[in-house]
Amino acid sequence: MSDVKNPKVRFAPSPTGQLHLGSARTALFNYLYAKHHDGTFYLRIEDTDKARSKQEYVEQICSSLEWLGIKWDGEPLFQSTRLNEYHDVVLTLLENNSAYRCFCSKDALETARVGGSYQYPGTCRNLSEEDIKLHMNSGEGFVVRLRVPEGETHFDDMIYGAVHVKHEEIDDFIIARSDGQPTYNLVVVVDDHEMEITHIIRGEDHISNTPKQILIYTAMGYAVPKFAHLPMILGQDKKRLSKRHGAPGVQEFKNEGYLPDALLNYLALLGWNPGSDEEIFTLDELIALFEMSHVHKKSAVYDEQKLSWISGQHMVRLGTAKILEGIHAINADWGQGFETNYLYAILEQLKQRSKSLRDFIDQSSYFFTDPQSYDEKSSRKNWKNVATSQIINVYKKRLESIEQWDANVIESTLRMTAEENDISAGKLIHPTRLALSGVSNGPSLFILMAILGKDVCIRRLNKALEIFPLQS
RNA sequence: GGCUCGUUCGUCUAGGGGUUAGGACGCCGCCCUCUCAAGGCGGUAACACGGGUUCGAUUCCCGUACGGGCUACCA
After folding, report:
1. Contact, A185 vs A175, CB < 8 A?
2. How confident is the model over A36-63, as pLDDT tens digits?
3. Closest residue to B73 by CA to C1' distance?
4. How far apart are CA A101 and CA A323, in angstroms?
5. What is the rounded CA–CA span in Å between residue A186 and residue A189?
6. Which of A163, A240, A238, A232 minimizes the C-alpha distance to A204?
7. Residues of A with catalytic annotation?
8. A236 near A302, Cβ under 8 Å?
9. Computed over its alpha carbons, how large is the radius of gyration of chain A?
10. Euclidean distance between CA atoms A110 and A364, whole angstroms
11. CATH code of the domain occupying A376-471
12. A208 CB inside 7 Å of strand B
């Protein structure tokens, strides 16, 4: 289908914050593209902004990627370790006349900016050797700018198609700051060349950097890689997704109890479609199906409800052992002191009712401790008077004599009791559920009772018989 | 402001010169049922607008509107 072989891609976050949804999707698409084509997925930490980069963010980003199951190949490359290489490239560019020193002060340029033009006026573009020496000798600071030639640059974006940019629209941009530090555009090119990256897959916000980078590739005589720019993810207000949309970092999704595969699944569907009506996929399935040609340019709005649904779908498909593992990852105490089989039985029942791992925790308290309170509405509705207490008492007595404690027996006993007393089964089921769980919803009552066990059921019924009806 | 990209149900999307414009989430209803879910069935809801081109445009072209991106000695 595709003639791409063993591509090398990279995900290059800057450690100035934790991994966000948008970045996570960029990482995902890089990963999917690489793995689909038997390629390599590298991680590069863009930590040249010393003021904003933090080690703790490096760790957070890495652990988020690990949690997601996006595994990078080899060791991460840290740009902060490659300052010498960048410096050498700047010198080469200076030597081959592709770049030049600019002695204009920042303030001077700032005040020179008028109207709609933000471009560098080219003051130092053609300084003579003597002028340069003069400036240098007087100890003036300088930046290095790329000498952008006349003409235009074009490239074929895998998603955007043909992009043409006239050079008049490109500034003689800075590649080295006055403190000698290289800038983003320079650094990216040097590393992508060094790492032999074949496909640069990144957010649409980088599209205008691309011609600048191509200019550097060309000036250095490097082969130009292929580019794919991904559409943005927006919040409900159609603004670029950010913290204030309540969709912060990947870390939060983990804490909320989302499954990594579910998050990945949802993210993949933002801007890409599998070419069928299927919507639920594991990571491996996404790898197999991923095609860059199915990625479109339109930005997508993040929708937590759909994420939640997808999460629920994954939950149902997941084995109980995996679920237990996941729950313990966010709450190691859950179910402590109870047998694993007991926990499995609970999870099996709660699966259909849980969208996240948190839901299991939130819904399962009555499996471990007797209800401390009873749903008020249900109390009023389902255990109104002493008549209910009397019939519950009858049922309880019969339960006490059951030898074979299983759901079928529990159920037939209840139905028999109801029938003999000429009431509907529901009249007995609802108060019993209330007495046992304290709430009015949950798994089938008889399965619930079978799981809880005879002793617990009798104990809780006795307690409820003391309390209900609340007031008469 | 300049450059640029986009616009199909509220949202994610399929489609593409002639279709009852398809699917999914959500929402509503029904079925199932001991509740809540899950599941099944059905319903609600869209081609931004104006001009062309054409026998015929939602689909192609041009404008307008609206939205996104970029416009740093950040990455």
Report:
1. yes
2. 999 999 999 999 888 889 999 999 999 9
3. A177
4. 60
5. 5
6. A232
7. 243
8. yes
9. 32
10. 63
11. 1.10.10.350
12. yes
Mean pLDDT rounded to a whole number for chain A: 93
C-beta of residue A83 within 8 angstroms of C-beta of residue A183:
no
How many whole angstroms separate alpha carbon A97 and alpha carbon A205?
A: 30
The SS3 of residue A321 is: helix
Q: Which of residues 350-389 of A touch strand B (CB under 7 A)?
A: 352-353
Residue-level pLDDT at A114: 54
Residue spans of beta strands (DSSP E) within A242-365: 300-301
CA distance A196 to A24: 23
Cβ atoms within 10 Å, residue A244: 10
Task: Please name the fold of domain A8-80+233-301.
Answer: Rossmann fold (3.40.50)
How far in angstroms lies nucleotide B18's C1' from the CA of residue A313? 40
Residue A99: DSSP 8-state: E
Closest nucleotide to A183's CA, by C1' atom? B73
The single-letter code of the amino acid at A139 is G
What pLDDT, in 10s, does the model give residues A182-202?
999 999 999 999 999 999 999
Nearest to A309 by CA among A345, A339, A279: A279
Query: Mean pLDDT throughout A431-445?
Result: 96
**Whole-number pLDDT of residue A247:** 58
Strand B: which of residues 63-92 in chain A lie with Cβ below 7 A?
A: 79
pTM of the model: 0.94
Q: What average pLDDT score do residues A158-182 get?
A: 93
Question: Residue A269 gets which letter from DSSP?
Answer: T
Q: Is the CB of A205 under 7 A from strand B?
A: yes
Cβ of residue A239 lies below 7 Å from strand B: yes
Is-contact A212 A218, C-beta < 8 A?
A: no
A267 touches strand B (CB under 7 A): no
A155 forms beta bridges with A163
A82-230 placed in CATH 3.40.50.620: yes
Is A249 within 8 Å of A18 (Cβ atoms)? Answer: yes
Say how far residue A64 (Cα) sits from the centre of its chain.
8
Handedness of CA A108, A114, A117, A118 (dihedral sign): positive
A306 CB neighbours strand B below 7 A? yes
